[in-house]
Structure formats: C-alpha cells, structure tokens
Amino acid sequence: xxxxxxxxxxxxxxxxxxxxxxxxxxxxxxxxxxxxxxxxxxxxxxxxxxxxxxxxxxxxxxxxxxxxxxxxxxxxxxxxxxxxxxxxxxxxxxxxxxxxxxxxxxxxxxxxxxxxxxxxxxxxxxxxxxxxxxxxxxxxxxxxxxxxxxxxxxxxxxxxxxxxxxxxxxxxxxxxxxxxxxxxxxxxxxxxxxxxxxxxxxxxxxxxxxxxxxxxxxxxxxxxxxxxxxxxxxxxxxxxxxxxxxxxxxxxxxxxxxxxxxxxxxxxxxxxxxxxxxxxxxxxxxxxxxxxxxxxxxxxxxxxxxxxxxxxxxxxxxxxxxxxxxxxxxxxxxxxxxxxxxxxxxxxxxxxxxxxxxxxxxxxxxxxxxxxxxxxxxxxxxxxxxxxxxxxxxxxxxxxxxxxxxxxxxxxxxxxxxxxxxxxxxxxxxxxxxxxxxxxxxxxxxxxxxxxxxxxxxxxxxxxxxxxxxxxxxxxxxxxxxxxxxxxxxxxxxxxxxxxxxxxxxxxxxxxxxxxxxxxxxxxxxxxxxxxxxxxxxxxxxxxxxxxxxxxxxxxxxxxxxxxxxxxxxxxxxxxxxxxxxxxxxxxxxxx
Length: 592
Description:
19% strand; 6-stranded mixed sheet; alpha+beta; 21 helices
C-alpha cells in the first residue's frame, strides 16, 4: 500500500477512538490504537521507521474498529495482538488476553465469557476485571434467564437441565419459555452491556430491599455487594480511580533485549518487602534496531527499544491481573495512551534515580539479563493453565506390586528445579486400587497443610501422575479436607495435561510441558524407589534365615543397603552388625 492509498483510506475514517489493523492477504501485520482514528492512520503515509515502512508496503488493506473510550481501544489492541500475533508488534508470549462477553448467533443466544469470541457473535468488552464480569453475568442470568450452555447441550433435550432448577436459565431448549419472550430477555441483556445499568441494578435493588424486610440479612448483604459491582461496571476503565494513598503493592520492571527477543523481569514488593519475582519473554521485532529509534508523539505503538517493550508488556501482562499501586521502571515507556490509562487507574509510575527504589530497578534489570533470550517455564505454565503462579509445584505418585507394599511419593520443584529437602513419602494401606491410593495420599498431604503440621509453604500447583481418574480422586480428597490448591494430572501414554475443565495436548517441545514432565518423572522415580525399599523390608530371603528377625533384618539392610550387598559381605562384615553372631553369620553366607 503506497502513501496515496493510506491517505485515501484515512479520509473515510471517523475522528473517534478505536483500533486499526494493517493486513496483507488476510493476515494481520500490525495492530495499533488511536484516540483519533483518521489522524493516526493518516500518519502512516509518512512512516517514521524502516520497520513500519516495510509493514505499510506489504499491507493491502486497513481494518478499523471504533470503541467507546480510549481505554477500551487500549485493551482491544492488546486482545488483538494476543489473538493474531502480528509480526510487526511487540508480542508478549504468555497466553493471556482480556475477557469479553459474547451473545452467540443462535435462535436462543448463549451468553459466555470468552477471550476468543466468535466472528458471528454480538461481543461486548474487553474488560480488565474478570471477577467483576463473572459477577455481572451471573446476575444477568439470574434476572433474565439467559442460557450459558453450549449449543451441543442445548440441542435435542427433552427436559430442562439443572440451571433451570437453580433459576439461572428459563430453558428455551424445551420451550419452558417461548423463543419470542426469550429473545426479548436477551435484548435486555444487550441493553445493559450498552450502558443501561438500571435494567439490572433496579431488580437487584428491589430484591435486596425485600430480603432486608424479611430479615434475611445475609442474602441482603450478598445482593448489596452484587449491586455495587453492577453499578460500578460501566465506570470501569473510563473513570479515574482514587489512589489508595499507602502503596501496598509495587511492581518493579526490568528489561533486557537480545535481537528480536526481549525479557521483562517483574519484582513484587508489598509493604516494602520483596515477596515475588518472575520473568516473561516477548518477541520484539526491530526493538534492537537503532534505525527504528523515533520521537515520542504521545500515541505510542511504533517506538523501538526498551520503551516499546515496556508499553507492550504493561498492557498485555495486566490483562487479568490486578494493577499494582505503583510501577517502578528503568525508563519511561513513552506511550501517552498507556500513561493515561495507568493514571486513570490510580497507578503511580516512577523512574527512580537513586535510593532503595533505584536498587530494586537494578535488581529487576539483573534478573532480566540473566534470562534474556531464554524461556520462563513457570510463567508460561501458569499462563497456559490460567492460574496465578506455578513457581512451586508438588508432584504425587503411588507405587505397589499387585496391591502389596503400597507407597506414595510427594516431590517438590521450585522455579523448575527439584527441592529435595522438601520431598516426602508415605506408606499406604495395601490395596490394588490406584484411585483410592491417590485419594489417601492427597488427603494426608492436605490434612497436614490445613492443620499446620507441614512446615513447607503451600504449593502453587499440584501435579498428579495419571489421568482423569487419578485427578478426580485427588480433587475429592482436597475438597473433603478443604485445601484450595489447583491440581492437574499428566497422563503418560499421550502426555496429555488433564485439568478439571479440559484437556491440553501441548506441543512436544513446549517448555511448560517439559517442566510438568520433569516433576511427574521425579515423583514416579521417588515412589518406585520407596516401594522397592519397603518391599525389601517386608519380605526378603533374610526372613528364611534362622536367628534373623525383623529388627536384625532392618539392621542388615541399613548396614549394607540391599540383599545383594548382604550376599557379597564377608563373615567378618556380617558379624560387625549388632545381633549377628558367628553362627548366624555363617548361616547367612551358606543360605545366601
């Protein structure tokens, strides 16, 4: 696309906030955001960098999407970068994106929170606070009965499902409500997302007041909290948020760039104490190219180097994470729209020059340089599983021989490496039932954690060696004890990662899969090793030797390690063991 083509396309664009995409043969090359779409797109007629000039030359069309606010444009840009991974954008490799709400294109539309909406659906968002969205969607379903089930579950039903009994759905599938009335309810849901807050807030308020009159104060309090969330929903992302004053949480970022790879190290300080650290990799085309250095025009998006990486990371990383009270950076990110968003959200952004804050930035830079061009397995795993962290993982396996000498292993990995001081093992009741053995093992671990009898920190993730059955047994144990820790399973046959909600088949070279495999294999090795020890302890040929009872047998195995080593020992060596006289030693040698 030449300069005249860009100018001609820009003439037809509105002077409103939104997102634009440069595309070539159906592929997205670049995604950008704008306060004024016409002005911003027109600026590409005279590209400021060699990299952007190459992108414009390759493009054959420009697509746009208008948003209500500048903040929504910022968030939609990050979503599209996540989805399309455009070659000319700085891209955070962690698999995170902003949640949206979609109403599907169906005779009885389904409401769903998703990060990858259908092209034919009516879509609202994106939003930064997934918990807030979940609260609002549940309130809408309870009020208007819009279904949440998949089209597969909807079709062919002859009776309503449990959602109908719980008051979450009016069951259009079995025509408990006629389609015309159902579509009217869906229309009310659309009006709420378009800004008509009262369509949901008013019935919630009436229900809250009725519960209070009936002295059902617990329900009234729950409805009050839900009402506050609903009333704040449309202010989210557009209105300034008051700063908390006392900075409880501070994130410190450091950046290192090597070629087209960048690493961002993040340190988290709470109340002045360093409590967490992680690293994330990004693809940053042109970031290290000095010919791409440009002025800051307040728009952001095209700048190279550290500023571009910082701006892209801040928006893409905090997709579903709470923003800190303050961000400490090694240099300014140079993106005016990101700056306006952070200011509206009450986040203080500082580039410290000296003192303790400057030392924290230096520490973050050292962490980033240590992993530049590398891969943060723990961060990638946490993002792939959509959990808060995966820095500390505990693996579990059971081992037995036809139900005999049953044992369980519990290994620990921290930052991807085995933490052998935190390994544990347990003898189990002899039975040929892998599921019940796993349930017993996890109940033992969970009980010790809940009762404060285990001196180890709670893990971020539990990995079960096995498939769906073992995972279900483990989760039954966790639920029975009340230990709330995410758990997944890794099945050996196909290396499938099983979660409570779905199954992943990651590429065989995925770093986060390799991490789980190391934990799984170590748990298996440790379980088999302990099983062999218990089996040797329980029954060996030593049992047939006159004069060798259980205590003497233990001393022999403790001294020589195995029956094989006992066979190779001399009579004098055997006599050195407490309880073994000359006659017993000679009998041992003759029998073995």
